[in-house]
Design brief:
The strands form 3 sheets. The chain has a 6-stranded parallel sheet with strand order 2-1-3-4-5-6, with helices on both faces. Helix 3 (61-76) crosses helix 4 (92-102), helix 8 runs parallel beside helix 9 and helix 8 (208-227) packs across helix 14 (332-343). The protein is globular. It has 2 domains: 6-181 and 366-390, Glycogen Phosphorylase B (Rossmann fold, 3-Layer(aba) Sandwich), CATH 3.40.50; 197-363, Rossmann fold (3-Layer(aba) Sandwich). The longest helix has 20 residues, at 208-227. It has helices at residues 18-32, 43-47, 61-76, 92-102, 131-138, 143-153, 162-168, 208-227, 242-251, 269-273, 288-292, 296-303, 316-319, 332-343, 346-363, 366-380, and strands at residues 6-11, 37-42, 82-86, 106-110, 156-159, 175-177, 197-204, 231-238, 258-262, 278-281, 307-311, 327-329, 381-384, 387-390. By secondary structure, the protein is of the alpha/beta class.
Amino acid sequence: MRTRATVQFVGLSGYEYPHTRVRCYQFADALRHHGYRTRVLSFRDRMAPSLSEAAMYGLSDARRLRLVLQGALRLALRPHALLYVQKLHYHALAALTVHRMLGAPFVLDYDDWEVGTDPYGVPLFCGFKDPRLTRNLFGSCDPERILERVARRARLVVCASHFLQDRLSEFTRRVAYVPTGVDTARFLPQPEHHDGVVILWNGVVWGEMIRDNVLMLLRSFPAVRQACPEARVRIIGRGAFMEEVRQATVDLEISPYVEFPGWIQPDAMPAELARADIGVMPVAHDDAWTTAKSPTKLFEYMAAGLGVVVMGRGEAAHVVKHQASGLVVDDERGFAAHLLALATNAVLRRSLGAAARIRVEECFSLAVLGAELAQHLRRYWRGGGGRLVEAA
């Protein structure tokens, strides 16, 4: 179905962070194949390119307000576009302002339960440091109340996980499930051309919660190393707590067998996964934020044909079918046992990896998800006269 409608994606982070890379840039590309005109306004890439991704979450209130104003002015130039707001942080105010002043319709794309705090008390909602600003501009200081208000005003809420679909359905009936997915044309299975068994974890160790996930992997590794002397771990990424992860390898006396290549640019990740055999998603804490996440790295592991070991908490349990397309475990003991089983059984790794590839091709490729997203948009809008109107 061809349409003249324009979808304007609005993200806080830049291309390096998966929620903006996939759910803005790559979703925008996928929608173009279905007749939509698309644009992406990344606050970091377009208006603050000198800042790191992490710095976007620590800006002063004055800098946040300036970026919101700049963003609103840019969005107001195309008042008839559908504003596709990815995440509900301070940047969303740019789109909400254009919605209030010019009546521009918007979609809320929600991929994390960013309400309350993490297990260590770190706030998950990134509004303003001064609660008076948050109250005046969002209409409340309560992140869940803010989420409810915005969700009710949105023409559509796109949720990245079943948990989020269930929670947001409490606020509105206009909810669609679209997981993050993966570009299966870029992430491809490769023949083994390296020695040993490479176990891979990648991500940003931005807090204690993520640190604890990686520590679970490291605690499980000595038994793997004993049974499979050629095994090694690659931990790709960066973050404020990465040094604690490094120290743990020393304390566990496994540092010679753990590699830290640093941050790898997203476009180079397919080559990195081609050097691996097993992709892991250990989860140390059972909390709403973890349960709500759409596991980007898991989709990439599976598309690359890796054998995967994941915790059966949250969305991963909907993605991986135990002993069919990967191994799903309930606790740290199970994680260690199944990691050992996969590391010592090449036939099992290959068969699960091949099945994982088929699974993402059928259900989680960007081609499939782009068609589903376009269908959801058509359910509520049709293009006409260069503007979007709600479908009957």
